[in-house]
Design a protein that fits this description.
Number of strands: 11
Order of helices and strands: EEEHEHHEHHHEEEEEE
Distance between the termini: 58 Å
Helix content: 25-40%
Number of helices: 6
CATH superfamily of the largest domain: Ribonuclease H-like superfamily/Ribonuclease H
Shape: globular
Largest sheet: 9 strands, mixed
CATH class of the largest domain: Alpha Beta
Strand content: 25-35%
CATH architecture of the largest domain: 2-Layer Sandwich
Number of domains: 2
Amino acid sequence: MTHRRTGRYEPKEIPYPKLEATIPNQIHQADFVGPCYLKGPIRFYSLNIVDISTGRCGVQPLFSKSGQSMIDGLWDIWKRMGIPRNIQIDNEMVFYGSPTHPRGMGSLIRLCLHYNVEPWFIPVSEPWRNGVVEKFNEHFEQKFLGKYTMKTGAELRQGALEYEYRHNSKYRYSKLRSQTPLKALTASGKELTFPDKKVAPRYPMKKPEKGRYHLTRFIRSDLHLNIFGETFPVSPDLEYEYVVATVDVKEQKLKLYLDNKQVDDINYRLR
């Protein structure tokens, strides 16, 4: 306290391998809101997606979180927003499959890999790592769910589409230099890729033969890496560090990265 600090400030926080988005559809963050209830009551969930670069959103009400329902919802959003290069999600079971079969590749992973999308799972119990879509969820609950009364599924679907369009065409963000999300998309000049079929693939889908998916994990003092309930011992050098565990489907390998450098690989036969 008696000496002036010199030089650049060095934060004490443990380095985190954050994804950066510089162009539209480079990274989508996705999350579920719910269960929510219509007047009646009718229970539903909302699959919400935000494109990190432009702030565009996709909102899809679903009446269940089954594998096929989730695939249908993601597919419908992709038809409006385009297919991303990466999608970042939390560790909810509907996104990865089942802890009973941690190497089985759930419906979201299979859909993504078949369309060259790389899923990224954030650390367990750290929802702020998906902060953009989490903040959007709050806005969605206040400005849509808390503001409108809907009694039927048809009213809900129509209302969600209207909210999505209103957000994308009218909301202005300082990070976009006061542009709307759709204006930011137009200004980027980026050509988007959309699904090649009207109807989503049927569940269960064929197991992919190539592609990658990633899990960011914090290594604690037990030196265990947790992959959807299956644990692997790691080097003491990784204690109290965030690592990226990449599953390479073609090579059947689990590759560990620290600060973008590969530090280990593990045989990982997918079942």
